[in-house]
């Protein structure tokens, strides 16, 4: 039986042996391996920008209008393979893809070139007293309307410029805030990576250690093979044996208890019947004698000569004819006795059917003990099997120590520590340069703010200081100052706008392309598909990642699959397909032990022929119990006599009639004699008939006698059929034990072994699942990628830069209409040197 345990070993490795496959494989008992120790990762690789996110979405929509084309995968692949330009249409495709950026950038360059030139020409023109430079204003009737319109337009343009510069400032500040907070995010990623590296050895040790749980469970069941296997055999045989015994017990329980109750009631009733019949027989015999005596005396009286008289003859004849009614009706003398039935019932009550059935149960319940006694050879093999299991555990431990996991993790930890130190050293440098960037962007915003200050001051002074009654040459100082502020704003607009547009164009081209070529394809994983292009990063390798890791570029390992698996926090073994480096199926394979197990498992022999469910004496007692003997009683004769009246006629009625007819006779001795006979009949009724009728009522009051007899009669017929069925079922169950037990034992033994083997299969599956999903869960790797690309590059930098140029660019563009409206409006605020009267002609300047 040492072999049986070896079988459990063989199946532990997942191997299958067709020769010893069980007929039915029950699900094994569930083992609790606990949870693989794992710490929670701190990094949440998700960035919520807050309120400024609305601006980010607006910028994304604007970029979609500028560049609605899909990601140019083919062009990027050719560019990476240095094949761009080999095909004639490559440049055309690139221009088509970038046409939105090209046109927008061209307009920006045009702005950069023309605005300073226009400003220079405008300045020279005004110096020549043209273009509004002449301090002379021709007054017109709609001057107030024009002034109001110019002021309104300039104010609206200034508001739009203000919104734009606020957006630019918010984006600038947001970028600085995120850069300052990036250190915490980076430290969190390094912490998760360290947890990832430090926890992996402990997780592997935990997996190896749980082999003892499986081994201990298997040895525990092998040490108890007798009771456990015996219970299985008993359970399987019990599918046939228990119904037979249950049927007998049910009969012995419910049906028999009812029958015994009825028999006891019937016994009591029969005893009462026996006594009552004796009383009735004695009473009816005495009544019959008295009635015969009365009839004789009446006949003598009616034979008197007085009855021959004409007046009495008719009455006497009537009385004489009624004398036949003076006789008993119920005759109990002919009823059969019930003493034999009482004796049979007493014998039936002495049979204990329940004990007969319980003996069968006891014999069948001894099955585990029989199996225990006959499986001691298995117990003798347990030490050998234990040694085999211990050797397997040692092999597992040796194999895990032979893996280069510790060395790999140690090298990675060194590299990680160096990288962390490098990043920490350069964080102050990054923050310093970010300060310079923030300061430069702030200066650009201040340029726009300076222009806005002049415009707002000009509108404030001009509007507040304007006197509509004053002529152009007599305008107040405040109004004149407002006009000068407006012209100062125009001057600074020409000085700063082209500088602002240079920054806008550069950041627009850079930030817009990063958003379209990096951030968007990273979000929908198109970028990974490009990276997974065969022979892209290395012209000799089909799959770059597997070439780097395994030196085998033919293994299908893609960036997208690794990233997706790590994103789902799967184990590094599954994500990187490390089965190509070391295969855990081979590590868990112990098929070397299976052949011996397959041969020795067939030698189990258990004999259950000693189990006797119901012996011959028990069967005879069952048959005896089924016959109570009550069915031999002549129930009809009893019921017929019981239902009869005591006499054929009611003696009181007869006596009354006799006395009434005596009154019809002439007064004399005949009348008195008949009345005397009537009194004698009444006396007989009161002294003999009434007690007999009460005795009859006593019998009728025992109506349960009738019910008990009928119940016993019906139960007796049912018992006969049921006893025969029970005996047949018990015989079939006994035949199953005697003839088929060996097959059941073999089958149950295989099932038992499969259950034990199932523990090892559970262990193997649990190890595989844990390694695939829990051990070295690579979520930190995906978090690092998400942090670097999605959060830091795209959310922190690109979105902020794009929002900055969007706000600064909109402000720069609206400087043009602001210049026009400011120049026009300043003419109405500044103090003129000369003036004209009203002139409806159009002013030329």
Describe this structure in words.
The chain crosses the membrane at residues 99-128, 149-171, 435-464, 485-510, 804-823. It is found in: Cell projection, Microvillus membrane. GO terms for molecular function: cholesterol binding. Belongs to the prominin family. This is Prominin 1. The model is unreliable at 1-28, 593-601 and 838-845 (pLDDT under 50). The longest helix is centred in the N-terminal third of the chain and has 78 residues, at 225-302. Strands 1-2 form a two-stranded parallel ribbon. Helices cover 75% and strands 0% of the residues. It is an all-alpha fold. The two termini are 117 Å apart. The chain is built from 27 helices and 2 strands. Among the domains are: 50-181 and 423-507 and 801-835, no CATH class; 242-341 and 615-734, no CATH class. It has helices at residues 2-12, 53-66, 73-80, 90-127, 143-209, 211-223, 225-302, 310-321, 339-349, 353-365, 367-374, 376-402, 405-465, 477-523, 526-531, 544-550, 559-567, 572-575, 584-587, 594-600, 616-625, 635-643, 651-664, 669-701, 703-773, 779-813, 815-829, and strands at 136-137, 834-835.
